[in-house]
Amino acid sequence: MASMKLNRVVIGAGLAAYVGGTFCAYSYFSSSSSSSSSSSSSPSPSHQVGVGHQVGVGSSHGACCSCSGAVPAPGSFLRTSAASVWSRNASSYDSKISMDEIIMGVPILRWYMLWRYIPQGHNEVLEVCAGTNRNVAYYPSKRVKQLVVSDRCDAMIDVAKRKTEESRASFDVEYAVAQADDASALRRTGGPFDVLVDTFGLCSVPDPQVALKVWSQSVKQDTGLILLLEHGRSSWASWLNNQLDRDMDKHLRNWGCVWNRDIAEIVHASEDVEVVSVQTFHFGTTYLVVARPKAKAKGVAINV
Question: Helices then strands (H, E): number in the chain?
């Protein structure tokens, strides 16, 4: 009886920590966006940019930046101006988000995705929207022959290079400044690859459907895998969606992402990728998606 009570206490405490961690993390990003925007000389974006859920669905676009003048349409903003946000944040990005990722268990999700789904063998891996290369320590080294780390922002790539040196990765690592939805730029990185990895990148591309098409073309058509760890609109928690929608404008201006895109709708609507599995975490706001090029990998066994 005592052990059952203890188990209930442990489970209750764990659930409370999970709820609290998720809420605090989202609150932090909301408040940090607010403080950044209030200290900026930028005016608030137009109400149209802050439509919320509509901004993030399907081929809709999103961006975030603190720059002078009125904020243009989100897609246009991401294409032309968001790189300045990422460059500004590059040197301090890891220190700003590390604690929140730990509280939310994101390092565990990174590790789980890479170890669970990168298959046995000597794989060539392309990581897009890699930022400061926060995944490098979690790759299963014996299953990776080569990792190509790509990001649109050269300042992020500079940080990624230093981090890779510190991690002493046992596999070959190369770097490329390449836009994630630019097919010709990704082709220049090599490939076709065995695995394409993206963590929290669909929020920062102008058109997620274009990006998914390009990514499907970047892996081997018969056996290639696409592994996505994304954040977006909750699949069921309306109270979290309300917070995401409310603070979207501030988050856009200061982090370079649309954090309330409907990830499930985006991947299932794609004409170019076949969704193998979707798992959700953090009250449906974090998505782990396993996919492959559509209709071209029939008969390939994937453990899900």
Answer: 11, 7
